[in-house]
Amino acid sequence: MSLRIQPASVVLATVLSAVSVSGVVCRAQDSGFKLDLHADSHTTAAAVGLPAYPGATLYKEKDKGKDDDSGADIGMILGSFNFQLKVASYVTSDSPEQVLSFYRKPLSRFGDVLECNHGKPVGALTVTRSGLTCSGQQGGKGQINGDYSSDGHELRAGTPHQFRIVGICETHEKSTRFGLVYLELPKDSDEKSK
User: Fold this and answer.
1) How many separate domains does the chain show?
2) Does residue 103 fall inside a structural domain?
């Protein structure tokens, strides 16, 4: 599963890339101005707000003899700007269908569960009551916060600005790698005044 987040979030990603993802926390506050920036590479299903899949293990990618961390927790609050991304990657010997089936009920706590495949809705539900879609667009117009559609099969629940994703990253004959994502995107200033 690859998640594309563009425009405002690209700027944020650039700022965050300067911060080492090894438990960095920065805070500043002065007369109404608040800055909270954090990055951590140790995220689990619980941090995303979902249960761990039975028997699944955190995914570790082997690259040049080193284990990469299986998750990320990145957040930034700057005044009224609030961005948060939590990702945990797992692997199981079960099929993608079993993984998605398991997560339908826990995701339903956050609203309608939308199923997407390559950024397109699967089934009759194409947009949730809260306005969440598979493509990150509302009413045929792209959101200012960008496109956050996936390249794979996934389930989504929440609102357009605060939602969770269970996405299949890749499958092999004897394993399924999947990701659990919590994403909180900044709201437009027009929406805040409503």
Assistant:
1) 1
2) yes
Q: Which domain holds residue 133?
A: 8-192
Query: What tens digit of pLDDT does each residue of 24-61 get?
Result: 444 444 545 566 666 667 788 999 999 999 999 988 87
Q: Number of C-alpha atoms within 13 angstroms, CB side, residue 152?
A: 19
Q: Is residue 77 part of a domain?
A: yes
Handedness of CA 11, 13, 17, 21 (dihedral sign): positive
Q: pLDDT for 81-104, tens place per residue?
A: 788 899 999 999 999 999 999 999
Q: Is 116 helix (H, G, I), strand (E, B) or coil?
A: strand
Question: Does residue 3 belong to any structural domain of this protein?
Answer: no
* Single-letter amino acid code for the residue at 80: S
Tell me whether residue 88 is in a domain.
yes
pLDDT tens digits, 149-180? 456 899 999 999 999 999 998 887 889 999 99
Residue burial 123-151, b: 16+ Cβ < 10 Å; e: rest = eeeebbebebbbbbeeeeeebebbbbbbe
Rounded Cα distance, 176 and 99, in Å: 8
CB atoms within 10 A of CB 168: 21
Which residues are paired to 176 by β-bridges? 92, 171
